[in-house]
């Protein structure tokens, strides 16, 4: 029996605690375990190891990854960890927007042969710019105390919390 993407999402929400998901910070939302693990110093299945000096998170993205060159491949075809400098993009919207395309392109190619993929980026609309008054912030009801710190050497910046009742994702 095949189920649609929407039916799959409803199944996830209705049953809860499904293998491959972890608790999300927002009520009514789910988070894939792989997305959660990629923020921490854990190995990804047989691709390469994310060490405390080379890790992905919204707080610190390796500079080379953010510039579109996430990994170096040796002549033997095995991945090696290049020397990277970490950039802080959690509180820098302009830097995040500038690097977003490269970050997700690189993460989307982990474990695949990029030459076999179809580039659909031209059909994606360019998002409207944020208002000048917009600043990075936590959703209502969340603070720095709710951050799962991935790396002690790179503290998460202090951000304001959006006012109002705790943010929740409405049920579909």
TrEMBL record:
It comes from the Eukaryota. One of its GO terms (biological process) is response to oxidative stress. It comes from Hermanssonia centrifuga. Residues 95-171 form the Fungal ligninase C-terminal domain. InterPro entries: Haem_peroxidase_sf, Ligninase_C. GO terms for molecular function: heme binding; peroxidase activity. Gene3D superfamilies: Peroxidase, domain 2. The lineage of its organism: Eukaryota, Fungi, Dikarya, Basidiomycota, Agaricomycotina. Pfam families: Peroxidase_ext (PF11895). This is Fungal ligninase C-terminal domain-containing protein.
């Amino acid at each position: 029996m095949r189920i649609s993407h929407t039916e799959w999402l409803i199944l996830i929400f209705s049953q809860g605690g499904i293998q491959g998901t972890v608790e999300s910070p927002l009520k009514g939302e789910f988070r894939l375990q792989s997305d959660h693990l990629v923020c921490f110093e854990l190995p990804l299945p047989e691709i390469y190891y994310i060490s405390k000096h080379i890790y992905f998170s919204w707080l610190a993205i390796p500079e080379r990854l953010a510039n579109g060159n996430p990994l170096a491949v040796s002549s033997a075809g095995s991945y090696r960890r290049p020397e990277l400098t970490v950039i802080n993009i959690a509180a820098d919207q302009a830097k995040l927007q500038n690097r977003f395309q490269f970050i997700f392109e690189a993460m989307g190619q982990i474990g695949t042969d990029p030459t076999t993929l179809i580039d659909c980026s031209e059909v994606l609309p360019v998002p409207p710019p944020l208002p000048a008054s917009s600043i990075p912030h936590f959703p209502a009801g969340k603070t720095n105390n709710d951050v799962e710190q991935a790396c002690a050497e790179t503290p998460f910046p202090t951000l304001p919390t959006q006012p109002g009742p705790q943010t929740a994702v409405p049920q579909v």
